[in-house]
């Protein structure tokens, strides 16, 4: 296949639309369903992320993409009983390593992952398919699929679930082009390799970063490489904890990602895990209810006539004091930034979400002030020297 015609482009009025490589064979195969313009943007960006994350860590990797930015990314790590509940894994489902990675990736921000595009670095097996078939998702990209996984996934969305098989050996040309307003842009593709060596330059007093924290920093930096800038990413325990994408201000990125990380941490609380949902409630409805329950607008959920739609009994409020006490237990969080921190306010906000390890390019005239701020909080910070803007 050298050309793939699309129903329309980014919007229905943008027609005709197609993808091609100037007569060269396309490096993927559509095994089921039909692909849209945004589907393929998500697919190829997410594939790059998981491929690079697998190369950097040696671990099966996965991502959950929405609107050309990751809602979550993760590597394979076993889930304990609490994490399984947070990620809404059925009790009878045994997770393979690649399934662990995707479950974690989607669990980073389940509300944002609604209708996602899934990406896997390794073969999609039945374990992934059995989990994914119960979720709202638009499609998946992987290097291969087992027969059983294909059979399960082809039953999704009335048989129209988009399944893409990617050539794992495909390497794009060094130069890349795009058009804006009829004007061609050309640049060298961002082929920089992100490895543990990025964290060698540590100007802070604290210089010790545990191995799992280095993996978390790698996850955050590789995630940022494929996230619309400006962007900041929090990570913990082998998965992103909060991704702040496309903000004009660095502090707004840090706040947005931090708020998402805080919400994910709140979902681990016993009070949230044990919410008395009615039998048969859809996962998306439960996710939205949880999101509202842990927010400052929880009273809207607990009003008479509303809570009955979700719960067998009205839950007790998750008070501000209880949330604060739980947040104080949040620690060992890693944070990556796609560009330098210009002010200390980013560090001060990160500390509130348990950040102990930071990776950022450096290069600001105010680097020393940021370093001093990290020192005051006992944070280990690496200056990577690599900016990761993505537009």
Q: What are the defining features of this structure?
A:
391 residues, alpha/beta, six-stranded mixed β-sheet, five-stranded mixed β-sheet, 15 strands, 34% helix
Blueprint (SSEs and pairs):
Elements: E1 3-6, E2 17-20, E3 28-32, H1 37-57, E4 61-66, E5 69-75, H2 81-86, H3 97-107, E6 116-120, H4 126-132, E7 137-142, H5 147-153, E8 162-166, E9 175-180, E10 183-188, H6 211-225, E11 231-236, E12 239-245, H7 250-267, H8 270-273, H9 283-293, H10 298-302, H11 320-327, E13 333-337, H12 345-351, E14 355-360, H13 367-377, E15 380-383
Helix pairs in contact: 1-6, 3-4, 4-5, 7-12
Indicate the low-confidence ranges by residue numbers: none
Overall pLDDT metric: 96
**How many helical stretches?**
13
Percent range for helical residues? 25-40%
* Helix/strand order: EEEHEEHHEHEHEEEHEEHHHHHEHEHE
Largest sheet: 6 strands, mixed
The total strand number stands at 15
Q: Strand pairing plus helix content: what structural class? A: alpha/beta
Radius of gyration of CA atoms, rounded to a whole number: 21 Å
Distance between the termini: 28 Å
Structure characterization notes:
With 391 residues, the protein is of the alpha/beta class. Helix content is 34%, strand content 21%. The chain is built from 13 helices and 15 strands. It has helices spanning 37-57, 81-86, 97-107, 126-132, 147-153, 211-225, 250-267, 270-273, 283-293, 298-302, 320-327, 345-351, 367-377; strands spanning 3-6, 17-20, 28-32, 61-66, 69-75, 116-120, 137-142, 162-166, 175-180, 183-188, 231-236, 239-245, 333-337, 355-360, 380-383. A 6-stranded mixed beta sheet has the order 3-8-7-6-4-5. A 5-stranded mixed beta sheet has the order 12-11-13-14-15, with helices on both faces. A two-stranded antiparallel sheet has the order 1-2. Helix 1 packs antiparallel against helix 6 (211-225), helix 3 (97-107) packs parallel to helix 4 and helix 4 (126-132) packs parallel to helix 5 (147-153). The longest helix is centred in the first third of the chain and has 21 residues, at 37-57. The two termini are 28 Å apart. The model has no long low-confidence stretch (mean pLDDT 96).
